[in-house]
Amino acid sequence: MIARAAAGIAAGVVTLGTAELLAGVLNQEGSPLRVLGDAVVEHAPRGLREWAIETFGTADKGVLVISMLVVAVLVSAVAGVLGRAGAVVLAVLGVGVAWLAVAAAGVFAAVPTVVGVAAGIWVLLWAVDRLRTTGGGDSGVAGGEPTGEAGAVGAPVRERPGRVVAGETAGSSARFAERRRVLRGLALATGAGIVAGLAGRALGALRADVSGERAGIALPPPREPLPDTPFGADLRTPGITPYLTPNADFYRIDTAITVPQVSIEDWSLRIHGMVEREITLRWGDLASRPAVERLTTLACVSNPVGGDLIGNARWLGYRLDALLAEARPLPGADMVLSHSADGWTAGSPLGALTDGRDALLAIGMNGEPLPVAHGYPARLVVPGLYGYVSATKWVTELEVTRFDRATAYWTKLGWAAEGPIKTGTRIDTPAASARLKPGRVSVAGVAWAQHRGIAAVEVQVDDGPWEQARLAADVSVDTWRQWVYEWNATSGPHTLRARATDGMGVVQTAEVAAAIPNGASGYPATFVRVG
Ligand SMILES: Nc1nc2c(c(=O)[nH]1)N[C@H]1C(S)=C(S)[C@@H](COP(=O)(O)O)O[C@H]1N2
Ligand SMILES: [Mo]
């Protein structure tokens, strides 16, 4: 029983290993794990999917892969115990997965699964037949089984030629040796299967990798190039967040366990749904359109008060209002559901993409092609909206629709359908719990209210009056603004608070709110000790 289960597991591992190796060499779409994973994600009951995302967060896909492997091992073990009938089980499962692969990516995508299953079945039959001749495949203890059982099923006991077999004991030990050989073979097959599978995955990742392509991309010149840091935008106060966030320091949030690798050869943007004229733009089609450059501060709805899921970059791209106008949205449409290459979606108000603000299909970030993790080759950047409702990376589709017809990824999971960025500020320096000397201390940070702008920042020490901070140059309503308040620190423990006022004259709310459903709020506070 245990030996047979081991045979089944070896067969299963050989099946998956062979298939993954072939998928790595031939085509990623044929990976049975990927085919099955996509099918599970697509057809899982909503409740289960929500539970998985809530429980495992962005690791949900990794958990899915591990769960699938565990199930595969269990099913294989059962198939092994079933012996020859187990081969039929493997064949049927193989046909099912091959069929899913064909449905998802064409006939060619079935090759890895078909060859993998054939290899697995071969291993299973080889092992099952041999185990039968060595004593039914029960526990590994030779002699513990009635001699003659092998004969009863009609297979001869294999013995080494020339060996003198004297009676039962010698027969048992020959069978024992043969069994050990079979088990050793199974262990070898399992090991080889694992190595093949890992090699296939590594090869696939290497083949799909677009970083080489990215390095060779020439970005179009923008109409009015911008400096990285407009004059006066950076106060250079020690400890303050720099005005421009370098790509390497830019926060990253997405649901992808492996970063999607989308080649410009395969990339296209389809604008469809409630439009007069559906259009599909390929990479080469972009070149004939004017490229613009804009500084925009991106923020994540999950950013807690005082958190760092916010960054400011110089984005190069194409105006979304112009691209949408080419497709001519129909009256009644009020949402653009943007889709990514990895199946993620965001729902943005059509108005926010067409009201004249600098909503972009971005292809460049701080003078470079988009980093792969930030959406290469193209993503959306919309001033004033949290990333989860606007900033689709690896974007492939703009579906013009209505809020009462479509629901985006995070909205299905309880986050608000609309996500305008709340006015906020952060104290960068002094650091929390800092020990300071009495005297002049620069209290400084950044404040943001994208698309409304920042008009003022005030600082409060303990329960004192709110004092005006000095603001850095006003670059645009769409980027954050640095501020500094020169504090005359006195000995003792103190709490520093800050609050911002937006360009409409509205002070940020003091009401403390958690990030879900539409963004955290409340004044940031820093506790320090002076003296
Ligand atoms: N394809 C895809 N795009 C996505 C996401 C995602 O999970 N998948 N996350 C969004 C969220 S929640 C945010 S805050 C921004 C973050 O962009 P960044 O990683 O470039 O900082 O990307 C958005 N775009
Ligand atoms: Mo986000």
From TrEMBL:
Signal peptide: none annotated. This is Molybdopterin-dependent oxidoreductase. It comes from the Bacteria. It holds the Pfam family Big_7. The keyword Transmembrane helix applies. The chain crosses the membrane at residues 63-82, 87-104, 110-128, 182-204. Residues 258-406 form the Oxidoreductase molybdopterin-binding domain. Keywords: Membrane, Transmembrane, Transmembrane helix. It comes from Nocardia jiangsuensis. InterPro entries: Ig_E-set (IPR014756), OxRdtase_Mopterin-bd_dom (IPR000572), OxRdtase_Mopterin-bd_sf (IPR036374).
